[in-house]
Amino acid sequence: MENGSQRKWQFGGNEELNTAAISVRGALAMLMNNVNSPDDGDHHPQRPTIMLGRGDPTEFRSFWTTQSAVDAVTDALQSFKFNSYCPTGGVLEARRAIAEYLSRDLSHKLLAEDVYLTGGCTQAIEIMVSVLARPGSNILLPRPGYPQYEARASFDHLEVRHFDLLPEKGWEVDLDAVEALADHNTSAIVIINPSNPCGNVFTHQHLEKIAETAKKLGIFVISDEVYGHLTFGSNPFVPMGKFSSTVPVITLGSISKTWIVPGWKLGWIVKNDPKGIFDKTGIVDSIKNYLDITTDPATFIQGAIPQIFERTKETFFSNIIGIMREAADIVYEMIKEIPCLTCPHKPQGSMVVLVKLNLSTLEGIDDDIQFCLKLAKEESVIVLPGKNN
């Protein structure tokens, strides 16, 4: 260094993490950077950004959580019982409350030991993908789908095989394609119901067919139900756990959307497995071992869960669903009036909808990413491209 030579540093960033482009946050950051600023040189007046691409309902006053949930957190904090570390899997009272809550819709009764608490559904996805990431293994993901699964699988070197959702059939799973894709290295199939990003809700009959197909292939089902019960169409929400006597099911969920509190980061992994297959195959041990080396959701949020579930009135949920139904109707009808957009299937659940872009009606736009970038720049409207779904 004394003679002016450059030291060669021995460290560098992990290139495996360069998958942000396929994440929701990565896409949103790219679009927000393209929104015109007051001094962008184009002499555009500053205007508010209309955020339609982030699944955070808390930005709108009509979607605030219930006071009973806030009171439950306050009571948990003031009790001084939940300031410590929590045991692996979560606080027992919270696990038991979630088991009872989910059991209402099932033919079997879940126990506290069937529930593992996570830092939101995102961490639940991270854990399950890592659990399955054995050398040579693969997982079946829906297309369109939620990009977090693919981003995590890429990082963990877990091969992804995509099966299509069929818009002409209300975004049902192409089960023939599933059978063609699977082989002896396939571990699981992921479904998202109610769907993100399609907005559909699977029928009881279709879920039963998915279960039968998975059983035939010798794989299990990971059912992402973070939007469970947030339905407003003709199809009621049916949990995949109903079919666990046919095939073992891992259910992922959280309070984020149902209680409108994504920032509270409380999710779960639940095993619906009356035959004990997950225990025999080592899946349970792998989940527990991962939980031993990762962070836990805030203990005071866990402590509030029993009271949140017990004291939230049904009118809170019905009001939220009523607002969502009205919004879905408005969006669906307004899309009909936009020449370059088509909605293949009217949304029936979740907080998202997928639309088709007719590029032949647009000048200077080659794909959906360009469309979203120009919409952000020219109109300060943020919508997510479907390219990575």
UniProtKB/TrEMBL annotation:
Gene3D superfamilies: Aspartate Aminotransferase, domain 1, Type I PLP-dependent aspartate aminotransferase-like (Major domain). Residues 50-387 form the Aminotransferase class I/classII large domain. Keywords: Pyridoxal phosphate. InterPro entries: Aminotransferase_I/II_large, PyrdxlP-dep_Trfase, PyrdxlP-dep_Trfase_major, PyrdxlP-dep_Trfase_small, TyrNic_aminoTrfase. One of its GO terms (biological process) is amino acid metabolic process. The keyword Cytoplasm does not apply. Its cofactor is pyridoxal 5'-phosphate. The modification N6-(pyridoxal phosphate)lysine is found at K257. GO terms for molecular function: pyridoxal phosphate binding; transaminase activity. Belongs to the class-I pyridoxal-phosphate-dependent aminotransferase family. This is Aminotransferase class I/classII large domain-containing protein.
